[in-house]
Design a protein that fits this description.
- By secondary structure, the protein is an alpha/beta fold.
- It is about 45% helix and about 20% strand.
- The chain has a 5-stranded parallel β-sheet with strand order 2-1-3-4-5, sandwiched between helices. The chain has a 4-stranded antiparallel β-sheet with strand order 6-7-8-9, covered by helices on one side.
- The protein starts with a strand and ends with a helix.
């Protein structure tokens, strides 16, 4: 059964172009010409991925994402001509999984869509049982998909959970933004600043004092090991 994609854009020519591209990949596509139409469709249908334009009359893409993110767990990719870091941060902060600025190459869009669908397929597939990962106060229960800090639950998006899992399973290693993007996003097409934005969001929710997720200037990021925490505590004391 082919994956079902919702394409939301108030520009009919863009909707048609995207839909034809995805149909050529063997995907099933439903179109929505407005945020209102998208919300109505999402009430009654299940989609495997949503491509969502931001700047639409009436209910815009940001508001659509805000309203549905809590009950829709499929990937949401924003499409927008707004390309500032502030705009991208806002979009990803609402729970979107990716952000592609217009104009874009259709080949890049297709690669992004396929990468997200592959990742979603792996997430939904039965996986071998994995024990919880704990470093310091942070505990990631992979099997039950929960995160706690000092025993208190922390709500993370699917992307943030994937990023945290990747960082914790590579604790002690300095990871470049390019490597993180390739391994977590499963594509080499895209804006590397997406990694920094997601790390920022993860820190705000889980590590605001930068105790665990360290920036290695000019190189990338490192999640400290348990021994690293002990060393810092001794040094600080």
């Amino acid at each position: 059964m082919s994956s079902h994609i919702l394409v939301v854009d108030d520009d009919a020519s863009i909707r048609l172009l995207i839909s034809d591209t995805l149909a050529d990949l063997g995907l099933s596509v439903t179109q929505a010409a407005s945020g209102e139409e998208a919300l109505a469709l999402l009430e009654g249908e299940r989609f495997d991925l949503i491509l969502l334009d931001i700047m639409m009359k009436g209910i815009d893409g940001l508001e659509v994402c805000r309203r549905v993110r809590g009950r829709v767990d499929c990937p949401i990719l924003f499409l927008s001509a707004k390309d500032s870091v502030k705009d991208i941060t806002q979009g990803l902060g609402l729970g979107a999984d990716d952000y592609l600025t217009k104009p874009f190459e259709l080949e890049v869009l297709a690669a992004r869509v396929q990468a997200h669908l592959r990742r979603q397929s792996r997430l939904l597939a039965p996986a071998p049982s994995q024990g919880p990962i704990q470093i310091g106060e942070i505990r990631l229960d992979v099997e039950n998909v929960t995160v706690t800090r000092s025993g208190l639950p922390v709500s993370l998006s699917t992307r943030e959970l994937e990023l945290l899992h990747y960082l914790m399973t590579h604790a002690g290693q300095t990871l470049s933004r390019e490597r993180i993007y390739r391994d977590v996003w499963q594509t080499e097409y895209g804006d590397m600043s997406t990694v920094a934005i997601n790390v920022k969001n993860l820190r705000l929710k889980l590590d605001p004092e930068w105790k665990y997720i360290k920036t290695v200037w000019g190189q990338g990021y490192r999640f400290v090991t348990q021994s690293g925490l002990i060393e810092e505590e001794h040094h600080g004391g």
